[in-house]
Amino acid sequence: MSGNARNSCDPEPRLKASVQITLEHEASALAEIERRAGDPRFAQVNIPPRGLEPLGRHRYRRILAACAANGFPVSLHLGGSSGHASTGGGWPSFYHEEHPSYVQSMQTLVTSLVCEGVFEEIPDLKVVLVEGGFAWLPALAWRLDKHWKRLRAEVPHLRRAPSEQIREHIWVTTQPIEEPERPADMLSTIEWIGPERVMFSTDYPHWDQDDPRYAFKVRLPEDWARLIYRENARTLYRLD
Amino acid sequence: MNVTLRDHRPDNPAQSHLGFIDCDVHPFFRTPADFDPFLSARWREHRRSIGNRSRQGLARTSPYPRMSPGNGMRGDSWPKDGGPPGSDLDLMREQLLDLFDVRYGLLAPLVGGAAAERNVEFGAAMAVAVNEWQCAKFL
Amino acid sequence: MIQAGAIDCDIHPAVPNTRTLLPHLDDYWREHILRRGLERDNLETSAYPVGAPINARPDWQPAAGPAGSSLASLQAHILDPMQPRAAICNVLHGAQMMMSEDLSAALCRAINNWLVAEWLDRDPRLRASIVVPVHSPDLAAEEIERMAPDRRFVQVLLLAMTELPLGRRQNWPIYRAAERHGLPVGIHAGSSFRHPPSAGGWGSFYLEDYVSYAQGFAAALNSLLAEGVFQKFPDLRVVLIESGVTWLPANLWRVNKTWRGVRAEVPWLNRLPADIVRARVRLTAQPFDAPPDAAALATLLEQLGSEDMLLFATDYPHWHYDGTEALPPGLPAGLLRKMLVENALATYPRLTAP
Fold it and tell me: N or C: which end of chain A has fewer CB within 10 A?
């Protein structure tokens, strides 16, 4: 295909839009989700991971339910301006600290969705964590499982193990690709998450964009590569 | 990052990435006025006077600015027309969609300030405007 | 019409864009900012949106750039028609908002250098406040030391709402340096928004924020009192800039009452708080959130309890009045005379001393 043959006014059928909403204005968010439902140009609903309260709280439940009911995965792209310090200990000084702290925001989000019982209440909810890394997810699932066992009387609404809920409801994107010290450890990480839940992303045109030719420092098994580069997203977003 | 790779041979002989689906592509506006056609007169005026208000000390800049121009853009992704990276569909085709034979790209518009807007009525208006703008400009 | 020779204690030159600051940075920070592309951003503060009507009087808007960015406009609008003896420049800028203390300090140094070169050196009527990295008291004190030898800097500029309440002991290096050099600390309205503007969270509208700045002053003042800053630094003066003024009496009653009840908790606070405030704190009188009638205004001024406290200010280019009506209407002549000149001379020793 040649980019020169077209001009920027032509439609670009390869691109899919994400529905923007304002989480703190429920009526308008619900209206916008319903307005875009069934429009094949829109693939998902975007919500920033950093909000006024953790996403699992009841005040956001109807919006998440509407996403699921209308067939939209919820995409959580790192970022957001919540007014809360980016770490529990306060505001860090440098972007060097802020960039890793996005991972902690993602962890808070997963913990909230699980502990509030959102996935048990909305079985069709599909959540995509974008640009927040993924190597941390297995350890968080193990930690939730372990301490859920001791504290489950506090959360009787959680009937299934957190790790099961995570594996069923959460997808992750690859960029910025994790770089284990031993490259082959990427394979065990993906295995622990589930190769059917990992999707490739570039983050074009940001500085830390991943190149699909070089991102993985280890050869993926062919069936995993097919899933990660294509099939998982095709199934999740119902693309042809 | 912005290092030119001398060796362009794919490290994966099966080229299994070809025809991949890119789950994170960022469209940008040329100027904030790009959203005006999709805003009512009341919100156009609000955008120009009060503007976006989120929960941080700087009105338009991240309190943690990235380490490259455009708040963290790839150095070679600035369109020749002077707009910001992500604002020129032709360049996006050249550098991403055509280069890698991308089957689909999912847009993640980090623009408009709808999600973080303190005035939620304005936020709701900006959300609709950004949704319309994605369709009009990129799809 | 204001007589010539008044002292305008609050005007706001604006950095037109970050590129303007490049020549005033050292080599490392110039390269650092260019590599990050920060010269393309203007680092406007959320506390003062440049397009909001209250922040730019329509007939004071220059042909290009943000209101306040042109010395020629300032001369045409204020300095030439009003002929003040002095006008004090208070620069509001995102330099103070930066999370990196080093970047914040570098930008503050550049702003002070720019103030010297582009404003103070170009109009002898201008004076300025030292812009400091408010979240980094040691670096702020260093900047005070660096700029203090230039006697045209008459004050240190802080924000009412930052990461810590202003009286907290971590901030004391700022007060120590200011006191040593005879510089009042000017606390300006606004927030770096490390916290919501109130314990109730984030309001929807700029109007809410702007009104809440008065509460920010009350909290800052109470913090300075309770932590003992006025006792620890006996020669330090504090100026509340752009506070609205009329919130103060009721706040003093409350603080006095609390002090009478629980002063054992803060034994260093050994005088009635209102007496300390009347002796050591001054307020610029634009905006002046006046009561609706003359009788109420007279009562309010009695409650303030001192003719020494108010300082004349235009708050240029912010929009609080039209035409040349820079003085709040209805103030008695004796108070006006003190407000226009004497009080400022008593507050800012550097306005008289050579």
Answer: C
- Of the candidates B20, C92, C166, B120, the residue with the CA atom closest to the CA atom of residue A174: B20
Angstrom CA distances, B127 to A2, A98, C114, C192, C251, stand at: 33, 26, 40, 26, 42
The C-alpha atoms of residue C156 and residue A212 are separated, in whole angstroms, by: 53
Beta bridge partners of A77: A130
ipTM of the complex: 0.92
User: How far is CA A221 from each of CA A172, B14, C209, rounded to the nearest angstrom?
Assistant: 18, 11, 56
Among B residues 17-76, those touching chain C with beta carbons less than 8 Å apart: 48-51, 53-61, 63-71
Rounded mean pLDDT, C45-53: 95
Contacts of C101 in chain A (CB under 8 A): 93
What residues form DSSP beta bridges with A17?
Answer: A42
Q: Is the Cα dihedral C222, C223, C228, C234 positive or negative? A: negative
Which residue of A2, A7, A22, A232 to mutate against B (max B Cβ within 10 Å)? Answer: A22
DSSP code of A21? Answer: -
Give the model's pLDDT for residue A2.
39
Contacting subunits of B (3+ beta carbon pairs below 8 A): A, C
Predicted local distance difference test score (pLDDT) of residue A9: 54
CA distance to partner chain A, nearest, from residue B18 (Å): 8
Q: In whole angstroms, give the CA distance from residue C143 to residue C131.
A: 8
- Return the CATH superfamily for domain C7-347: Metal-dependent hydrolases (3.20.20.140)
Residue A81 near chain C (CB below 8 Å): no
Find the range with the poorest average confidence among A86-90, A204-208, C224-228. Answer: A86-90
Taking alpha carbons only, the member of C56, C177, A149 closest to residue B49 is C56
Q: Report the alpha-carbon distance of residue C245 to residue C236 in Å, rounded.
A: 20
Q: For chain A, list the domains and their CATH numbers.
A: 15-236 (3.20.20.140)
Domain extents in chain C: 7-347
Beta-bridge partner residues of A44: A18
Residue C67, Cβ neighbours under 10 Å: how many? 22
- Shortest distance between the Cα of C203 and any Cα of chain B, in A, equals 7
Q: Whole-angstrom Cα distance, residue C179 to residue A223?
A: 72
Which of A83, A92, A94 faces C202 most closely, judged by CB atoms?
A: A83
Q: What is the mean pLDDT of residues A210-232?
A: 95
Is there a contact between B107 and A41 if contact means CB atoms under 8 Å apart? Answer: no
Task: Look at the pTM and tell me if it is higher than 0.90.
Answer: yes
Phi, psi at A11, each rounded to 5°: -65, 155
Contacts 24+ apart (CB under 8 A), B69-77: B69/C36, B69/C37, B69/C40, B70/C37, B70/C40, B71/C37, B72/A206, B72/A207, B72/A208, B73/A205, B73/A206, B73/A207, B74/A204, B74/A205, B74/A206, B74/A207, B74/A209, B74/B2, B75/A207, B75/B2, B76/B2, B77/A204, B77/A205
Rounded to 5°, the CA angle B45-B47-B51 comes to: 130
Annotated domain spans of chain B: 21-55+82-138
Question: What's the first-to-final CA gap in chain B, in angstroms?
Answer: 28
CA distance C90 to C115: 10
Strand boundaries in C182-337, DSSP class E: 185-191, 238-241, 281-284, 310-311
Copy the structure tokens of residue C340.
């226009």
DSSP B105-121: EEE----S-TTT-SSHH
